[in-house]
Amino acid sequence: MNAPWPRRPRLVAGNWKMNRTASEGAALAGELRALTAAAPRARIALCPPFTALAAVNAALAGTPLLLGGQNLHAEAAGAWTGEISGSMLAAAGCRFVIVGHSERRHGLGEDDALVARKLKAAQRDGLTPIVCVGETLLEREGDRTAEVLVRQVRACYEGLDADAARATVIAYEPVWAIGTGKVASPAEAADSHRLIRATLDRVVRPGLGAEIAILYGGSVNPGNAASLFASDEIDGALVGGASLEAASFWRIVAAAG
Ligand code: 13P
User: Fold this and answer.
1) Which helix (H) or strand (E) holds 149?
2) What is the mean pLDDT of residues 65-74?
3) What is the reported pTM?
4) How much is the pLDDT for 233?
């Protein structure tokens, strides 16, 4: 059984996406392992591809680094060729699972209802979901950022009790910032984080928004991490490209305090 998830922890998570084989992942985790002697304050998670989970988990043994999956199926088990359940991730050593990443929403057709089911499936299977929300460039330019974020948060959190909601992490990842080198400014990210917290207050319980860690994701790198983390609204980062090399990921971890 996982230890209870603390109130609004600092978290830096690396989303490796479809990169790194098992042996490459073990090597990267090994390099990070050597750096943990520096005892960072932030919690750190690595989310490798499914095929690298076992090797990365072995390489992380005895370190405070945590493991996460990048996706799960909403059902517990059954005839779902090619899919992976939350209980399989938990058995592989995962503490976290990413749900609703924009590459799955927009590239693989996942809608709000499915993301909400995945959030609940993750919790059923003892995982802490990292729930991704974020607007596309078209939505931002059409002044629809607030509408989209409220809709995505509402779909996932409506009907959750405060304890269940508190046992999640949110990642605000504006789609236009992912993999583009175009990072949201700390003020833009903070505005969205405030809106997400206000929505949680309305949908779940007043005051709840202040208790949930909200990470920023989208072109975070060692050069911009510190200015993002300087905002009280930004509790950490979900890092893609810059998490694929130990040195750059660790500089982001170090910037988180
Ligand atoms: P990049 O850091 O490569 O922009 O990716 C962000 C992301 O999608 C993390 O989930």
Assistant:
1) helix 145-157
2) 98
3) 0.97
4) 97
What's 1-93's CATH class? alpha beta
Q: Is 218 in the pocket of ligand 1 (CB under 6 A)?
A: yes
Task: Give 148's contacts (C-beta < 8 A, 6+ positions apart).
Answer: 133, 134, 135, 136, 139
Q: What is the CA radius of gyration of the chain?
A: 17
CA of 240 to the centre of ligand 1 (A): 3
Is CATH 3.20.20.70 the right assignment for the domain spanning 136-237?
yes
Question: Where exactly are the structural domains of the chain?
Answer: 1-93, 136-237
- For ligand 1, the distance from its centroid to the CA atom of residue 79, given in whole angstroms, is 31
Please indicate whether the domains covering 1-93 and 136-237 agree at the CATH topology level.
Answer: yes
Give the count of alpha carbons within 13 A of 28, CB side only. 26
| Phi, psi (deg, nearest 5) at residue 215 | -90, 155
Residues composing the chain: 257
The ligand 1 atom nearest the CA atom of 180: 4
